[in-house]
Amino acid sequence: MNYESIFIISPDLQAEKIGEIIAKATKNIEISKGVVRAVQQLGKRKLAYIINGFYDGNYIRIEFSGNKETINTLENFFKFNDFVLRFLTIKIENNKFTKQMSKITQAAEEKNNESTTEQQSSFT
Q1: Any idea what the CATH number is for the domain that residue 24 is in?
Q2: Are residue 88 and residue 100 in the same domain, yes or no?
Q3: Residues near 33 by Cβ (< 8 Å), separated by ≥ 6?
C-alpha cells in the first residue's frame, strides 16, 4: 500500500538536525520493510494554532510504500521524538492525488522563492 506522512518539526532546529530526523524516519521505514518514494521539505510555515508554545513549524512530507508494521514503526518514532510537534499518516489510493500534491507543493515553493526575491530586492 502507498502512504503519505506529513509531520511538523520544531522551528528552532538547525538544518542539519532536521536532516538527521528525516534520515531516522526514512531508516525506520526501510527497517520495517517499507520503501521510501519521496521526501519533501515544505519549509517553515505558520501554524494554525500554538503547539507547545511554537507559532511556526517545519513541515516535512514523506511518501512511502509499506504495511501496518511500517506505519506503526514510523508513528512510534514520531510519538517518542520530542522535536516532532504533530504528524499525520494517510493512505494514498491512486497516483492522481500524488500528482496534485506535487503541483501544490511546487506552486508553494515558487511563491516562497518569489517573495524571498522581492524582499532581497527591496533591501538593495
Answers
A1: 3.30.70.60
A2: no
A3: 66, 67, 69, 70
Count of structural domains, the chain = 2
The residue among 65, 52, 57, 48 whose CA lies nearest residue 21 is: 57
User: pLDDT per residue over 55-68, tens digit each?
Assistant: 999 999 999 999 99
The DSSP code for 4 is E
How confident is the model at residue 109, as a pLDDT?
73
- Domain interval for residue 101: 94-124
- Amino acid letter for position 16: E
Q: Do 69 and 107 reside in the same domain of the chain?
A: no
Annotate 106-115 with b (16+ C-beta within 10 A) or e (fewer): eeeeeeeeee
Count of positions (residues) in the chain? 124
HSE-up of 32 (CA within 13 Å, CB side)? 20
Phi and psi of 22, rounded to 5°?
-65, -40
The residue whose grid cell reads 522581492 is: 118
